[in-house]
Amino acid sequence: MPAPPRTSVAGDVANAVPVAPASARAPTGDDAPTLPQRGRGALSNASGRFEKETRCDANDGWDLPEDLPTLRTQLTRESAKTIVTRNDSPDISFDRSINPYRGCEHGCVYCFARPTHAYLGLSPGLDFETRLFAKTNAASLLERELSAPGYAAKTIAIGTNTDPYQPIERRERVMREVLEVLARTNHPVAIVTKSALVLRDLDLLAPMAKKGLAKVALSVTTLDPVLARKMEPRASSPERRLDAIRQLAEANVPTAVMVAPIIPAINDAEIEAILARAQAMGVRDAGYALLRLPLEVRELFAEWLRAHYPGKLKHVLSLLRSAREGKLYDSRFGARMTGSGPYAWMIGRRFEAAAARLGLGRSRVPLRCDLFRPPARHSEQLCLL
User: Fold this and answer.
1) CA-CA distance, 287 to 275, in Å (whole number)?
2) At residue 338, what are phi and psi to the nearest 5 degrees?
3) Do residues 26 and 46 touch, judged by C-beta distance below 8 A?
4) Which member of 139, 257, 283, 362 has the lowest number of beta carbons within 10 Å of its beta carbon?
């Protein structure tokens, strides 16, 4: 089926299918866990923290079954004002990034980016994975920003907030267009994804990698397909991600594996197995991060545990608190990624020992910035060379 025509008008809704009422899926209490919906990670759609009204379910005593309409994905094509985001965080290795999409259809229940949907007046719950926004003018914006006088090239990270290769990318191709600009200008790029769709762009990534301009990290959270389907329902299966690692490595694209997030008593037993499988597929580097539960993600994740692993609920949250100085989230630089305390220390030592045994480094592959050639500005005369 051909893709619908694009438009640069902000707010163009591509799939005009109404989303089921948010309040119909809100939790009703600890003793009545919400049932998960097929293909979705979050179980509810509570109002964002900036809203004046709060939606919730109320039991009227009738207990009548309700047939809810199928929860479908809605896509809005929008025109962004800027595309390169800057940061000065000491916890991460890059100072600029691009997010082609807002919201993510992968539906990872633990996603730390969920709270950003509240800025749109939407819920970090089901809205985050069903009400998506595509920045259709990303490539043209990038060309404009790269051609700005005085721009100095440094690695641009993509996939640090929402996944650039989520399912809607197959049709929208926003990431593909952004990558074409970066390839044409010899600009270094580092990609993080959970999707095997990254292989579609191997024709761009392999030549860029040969010049020292590209590297890719695949996040592998578990090797158990059942667990993966529960907590990241629309991401590529673990085996497909591992196969993507293999194909990237065979194409000489520097490839890393991210064991992230590590969730106490859920996937922490798999650290060594994930690293071993990834090393066999050809990864050079590896990294990890302990589960982060900022703002609304705390309630969403607790609700998910109550529905899927009720017997582990208290144990998981207790271990998280032990690694976050009694809290479920610690936003301090230096602590938010790895935590502190005995449990966090044990996770760190296990990861380091396994990585060292397998010959996996944590030194990030440096990319070249000296090859960058800014695109010509529209007002400039073309070069005669």
Assistant:
1) 10
2) -120, -15
3) yes
4) 362
- Residue owning tokens 């790895």: 338
Residue 358, strand partner residues: none
d(CA 353, CA 39): 36
- 242 in Cβ contact with 277 (< 8 Å): yes
- Residue appearing with tokens 């994905």: 73
**Count of CA atoms in the C-beta half-sphere (13 A) of 260:** 21
Segment holding 273, helix H or strand E: helix 271-281
- Whose structure tokens read 């989303």? 19
Q: Give the separation between CA 195 and CA 180, rounded to whole angstroms.
A: 19
Helix, strand, coil percentages in the chain from 3-state DSSP, rounded to 5: 35, 15, 55
Sign of the four-CA dihedral 346, 294, 235, 96: negative
> pLDDT for 300-333, tens place per residue?
999 999 999 999 999 999 999 999 999 998 888 8
Alpha carbon of 141 to those of 80, 156, 166, 214, 351: distances in Å? 8, 14, 21, 21, 40
Give, in order, the Cα–Cα distances in Å from 183 to each of 20, 35, 265, 367, 368: 41, 45, 42, 13, 13
C-alpha separations of 306 from 56, 83, 125 in Å = 18, 38, 15
CA-to-CA distance for 2 and 374, rounded, in angstroms? 34
What mean pLDDT is reported for the chain? 88
Task: Encode pLDDT of 199-209 as tens digits.
Answer: 999 999 999 99
Supply 174's token pair.
């926003």
Largest CA distance in the chain: 79
pLDDT tens, residue by residue, 221-240: 999 999 999 999 999 999 99
Q: 84 φ, ψ to 5°?
A: -95, 120
**In 3D, which of 215, 260, 235, 85 has the Cα closest to residue 169?**
235
> How is 295-350 classified by DSSP, letter by letter?
TTHHHHHHHHHHHH-GGGHHHHHHHHHHHTTTSS----TTTTTT--SHHHHHHHHH
**Cα 129 to Cα 56: distance, rounded to the nearest angstrom:** 19
What pLDDT, on the 0 to 100 scale, is given for residue 1? Answer: 43
Tell me the pTM: 0.86
